[in-house]
Amino acid sequence: MSYVKIPQVFADDILKLYQPQDGILPLIEPGLTPQQLLERAVNAGQFADAVIFLAHALPVRESIWWGCCCAGLRSDWSEQEQDAIRSAKAWVHTPDETSRRYAEQAANTATLQNGAGWIAQAVFWSGGSMTGPTDPVVPPPEYLYAQAVGGSINLTAILPDGAEAENRYRQFIEMGINIAHGGNGNIGSAA
Q1: Fewest CB within 10 A of the end CB: N or C in the chain?
Q2: Environment class of residue 141 by beta-carbon count within 10 Å: exposed (0-12), middle (13-18) or buried (19+)?
Q3: Residue 74: other Cβ atoms inside 10 A
């Protein structure tokens, strides 16, 4: 079954969208599908690389929604961090400039020391301008949001001490695959 939310391209085409890390590079062969490369990365324990790859492969809203779903499985967020996650979810449902700017504020309040702040930052970097509303428009680099989504999911998986990282990674990647298949990311219990 193919990933309906990922363009029918080769894995190499997705890897050209960003600078892949050393962990995933030995797994690449010409002609691999995104699904095949993702499976190889997971089987090789290259979870962080698999997350970054899938964050770039999914369309922007689905990528950010995946980050929201992963963050939503954690119950140890501060109020500011919860607000950052809520702001990202609000943007997914209503992807307008008001929601994007609210996510920017929420990311600044939550900080970028955690996955919650990064998922709100991903929203801010999803389009529009990176400067103030009255300043000249400076669009974010293409796919910068995907780097933030990957950072959000990776931090959510490993913090605070890495003890649950592998279990969380496996669950988070399963959620991302569910979204790639056209699902909503809801696969079951929290990690």
Answers
A1: N
A2: exposed
A3: 20
130/148 Cα distance (integer angstroms): 14
9-47: pLDDT as tens digits? 999 999 999 999 889 999 999 999 999 999 999 999 999
Residue 164 token pair: 């649950």
**Whole-prediction pTM:** 0.94
Other Cβ atoms closer than 10 A to 48:
20
Interval 132-186: pLDDT, tens = 989 999 999 999 999 999 999 999 999 999 999 999 999 999 999 999 999 999 8
Q: 175 near 66, Cβ under 8 Å?
A: yes
Q: How far is Cα 47 from Cα 44, in angstroms, rounded to an integer?
A: 8
Please give the angle made by the CA atoms of 128, 154 and 148, to the nearest 5 degrees.
Answer: 10
Q: How far apart are CA 183 and CA 170, in angstroms?
A: 17
